[in-house]
């Protein structure tokens, strides 16, 4: 039987936690042992970090697998846990959000203020006829009102569906229709790349096709002229004039909290459904454990958009349930200059920074002089999410952002998992650059072969989760069969292999010789070269380990000899000379470099040097588009320079405006 996925990259560097962090860490190595001894008791203790109006009767009901119920019979209010209990404990004056608008305007929102706004929004939504179980679509820029809108829904038991502000009217329409949303919360627009970017016209176009929508609440952000209809209400005239008195009612632990759409590989987006008790337990615990968050002293900043699951779990629910002080930034990292992120870290004395590999690699491209121009000494921990982080990007992050000494937590999880699943613990783990290391306490992950058998150390295959976890998706909205088919039918009970249900995440992974987990990209992207399954991630990491490359994407293109051949797109680092012969020499050098690092089987047939790569707004490379480019015969074997035909193809797919891709 052939290997499920080759293990080519051998990375041996390893970094222990800083002594001081280890000595004061929120979570120590004992957590692994405690969870291994009694997993459900472990999660029960983590649930105890929250305020419950009614204690649960049972931790987990898995009798109707794969439909889970966590904390059965328990009742809580998510917004109460994120706001009221901090205010009641005398922490109302603590800053919840340091908000920084792209044009440089700022707002400081305390817990008391966030609580008041949320109560007002809860009252306003109730006045508009929203009741528990109704769906509310949220289409907003990165403004504090986005968090308020989500928390107000949670407070009254309405289910929010946040649609990323970069999505098109069609994408918004489909999502509103799929969930039959009754209200849409939006804004006139937001600021992006130095200018107002309108949202309201997109909503108008969508709402015209969505009879379920009765009301539209509009936050005024840019002040630009907007069209107005009978369904529209200004936020400042509705929410900000509503009563600030609102008593949060408890809801069942399995009451729906939100739907978030993820497109995955198939065209029709899947509405991932999350509920309250288990979700808040795990997002809250992981914020505490993985970021070592100390609410009294830390300033936390997650650079994600609120329309991505990372914004849900690690801007809103995780940090606020822990009473964190955080930064929220409206705009792009290069507006008005390429040092904007580091300026913000310096300005607010950020201690914990959580960002995406795409951002790190962009910073590598721009050069280390930029972060070097700012005082980043407040930082004490760095995080990464969204894609595999290449070892060289990891090292760059640690070196040029983390003063060569900060721990990095590479956190693997998905919209579907709701919260972090595989990650180092910053006070415990001796992290390896590029590895997400081990499943968190209470999580059971494995790498299996085609038959669902656990692979030995050193082997590659499919990443699976063997036990249910509190923040797991409960179903796909309105489509239980698709839920079973998509996630539970490849291995285990759902595939008629034994009694245990096994969740397959869609990612390839390997275990190294120490049993640590390395994510290798989506299995749909795996390349089959002369009978070997080669992961995109390993070839990309090999390219990025060359001193002239900041970022790379590889795809498999049909090849008459090898079945598929590796075609690579590489972004050179800032000062690299790629003109004429220098470019050709670099390409030859890169092909040899990959062959030397991973073996001749992984040598790319073709490498194109490009200034940019097509990405989703959460930073994931759109390989599907690059495959089209790679297979486009009219390109011939052009491999040099920033060939304009390549870039034309790439940019025609990138589009300038709103897209349907997530
Ligand atoms: C949180 C989030 C999920 C997919 C996931 C995987 C990739 C996320 C990763 C990672 C390697 C990491 N992914 N984190 N791959 N290392 N640390 O990104 O959710 O947008 O649903 O994407 O992202 O492929 O399956 P989502």
Rounded to an integer in angstroms, the radius of gyration calculated over CA atoms is 24 Å
Query: What is the average of the pLDDT values?
Result: 94
Query: Low-confidence segments, ≥5 residues, pLDDT <50?
Result: 636-643
CATH class of the domain at 38-332: Alpha Beta
Strand order of the largest sheet: 12-11-8-6-7-14-15-23
| Portion in helices | 25-40%
Small-molecule components bound: ligand 6R9
Annotated CATH architecture of the domain at 38-332: 3-Layer(aba) Sandwich
For the secondary structure, the number of strands is: 30
Oligomer: single chain
Strand content: 15-25%
Task: Report the biggest beta sheet as strand number plus sense, adding barrel if it closes.
Answer: 8 strands, mixed
CATH superfamily of the domain at 38-332: ANL, N-terminal domain
Structural class: alpha/beta
Shape: globular
Number of helices: 20
């Amino acid at each position: 039987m052939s290997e499920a996925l080759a293990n080519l990259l051998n990375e041996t560097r390893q970094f222990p936690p800083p002594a001081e962090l280890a000595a004061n860490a929120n979570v120590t190595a004992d957590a692994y042992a405690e969870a291994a001894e009694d997993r459900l008791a472990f999660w029960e203790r983590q649930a105890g970090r929250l305020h419950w109006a009614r204690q649960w009767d049972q931790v987990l009901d898995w009798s109707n697998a794969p439909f889970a119920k966590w904390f059965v019979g328990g009742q809580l209010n998510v917004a109460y846990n994120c706001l009221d209990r901090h205010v009641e404990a005398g922490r109302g004056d603590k800053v919840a959000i340091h908000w920084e608008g792209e044009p440089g305007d700022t707002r400081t929102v305390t817990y008391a203020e966030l609580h008041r706004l949320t109560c007002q929004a809860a009252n306003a939504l109730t006045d508009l006829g929203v009741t528990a179980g109704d769906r509310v679509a949220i289409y907003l820029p990165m403004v504090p009102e986005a968090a308020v809108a989500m928390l107000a829904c949670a407070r009254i038991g309405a289910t929010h569906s946040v649609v990323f502000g970069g999505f098109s009217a069609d994408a918004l329409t489909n999502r509103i229709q799929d969930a039959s949303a009754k209200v849409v919360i939006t804004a006139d627009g937001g600021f992006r790349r130095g200018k107002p970017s309108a949202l309201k016209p997109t909503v108008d176009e969508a709402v015209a096709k969505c009879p379920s929508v009765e009301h539209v609440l509009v936050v005024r952000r840019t002040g630009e002229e907007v069209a107005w209809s009978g369904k529209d209400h200004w936020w400042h005239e509705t929410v900000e004039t509503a009563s600030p008195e609102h008593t949060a009612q408890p809801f069942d632990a399995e009451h729906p909290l939100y739907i978030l759409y993820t497109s995955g590989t198939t065209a029709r987006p899947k509405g991932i459904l999350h509920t309250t008790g288990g979700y808040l337990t795990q997002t809250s615990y992981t914020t505490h454990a993985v970021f070592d968050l100390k609410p009294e002293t830390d300033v936390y900043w997650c650079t994600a958009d609120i329309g991505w699951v990372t914004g849900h779990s690690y801007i809103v629910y995780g940090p606020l349930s822990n009473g964190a002080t955080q930064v929220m930034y409206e705009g792009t990292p290069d507006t008005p200059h390429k040092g904007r992120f580091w300026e913000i870290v310096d300005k607010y004395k950020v201690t914990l920074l959580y960002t995406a590999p795409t951002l790190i690699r962009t910073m590598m491209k721009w050069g280390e002089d930029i972060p070097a121009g700012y005082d980043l000494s407040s930082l004490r921990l760095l995080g990464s999410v969204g894609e595999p982080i290449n070892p060289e990007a990891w090292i760059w992050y640690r070196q040029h952002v983390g003063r060569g000494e900060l721990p990095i937590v590479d956190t693997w999880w998905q919209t579907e998992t709701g919260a972090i699943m595989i990650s180092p613990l910053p006070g415990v783990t001796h992290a390896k650059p590029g590895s997400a290391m081990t499943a968190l306490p209470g999580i059971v992950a494995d790498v299996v072969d085609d038959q669902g058998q656990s692979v030995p150390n050193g082997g590659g295959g499919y990443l699976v989760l063997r036990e249910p976890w509190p923040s797991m998706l409960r179903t796909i909205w309105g489509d239980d069969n698709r839920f079973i088919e998509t996630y539970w039918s490849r291995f285990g009970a759902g595939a008629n292999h034994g009694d245990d249900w096994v969740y397959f995440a869609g990612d390839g992974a390997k275990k190294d010789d120490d049993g640590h987990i390395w994510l290798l990209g989506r299995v749909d992207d795996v390349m089959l070269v002369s009978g070997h399954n080669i992961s995109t991630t390993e070839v990309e990491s090999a390219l990025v380990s060359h001193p002239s490359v900041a970022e790379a994407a590889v795809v498999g293109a049909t090849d008459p000899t090898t079945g598929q051949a590796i075609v690579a797109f590489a972004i050179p680092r800032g000062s690299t000379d790629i003109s004429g012969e220098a470019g050709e020499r670099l390409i030859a050098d890169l092909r040899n470099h990959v062959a030397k690092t991973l073996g001749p089987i992984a040598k790319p047939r073709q490498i194109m040097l490009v200034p940019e790569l097509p990405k989703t707004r959460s930073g994931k490379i759109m390989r599907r588009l690059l495959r089209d480019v790679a297979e486009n015969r009219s390109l011939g074997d052009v491999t040099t320079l920033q060939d304009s035909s390549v870039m034309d193809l790439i940019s025609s797919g990138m589009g300038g405006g709103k897209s349907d891709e997530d």
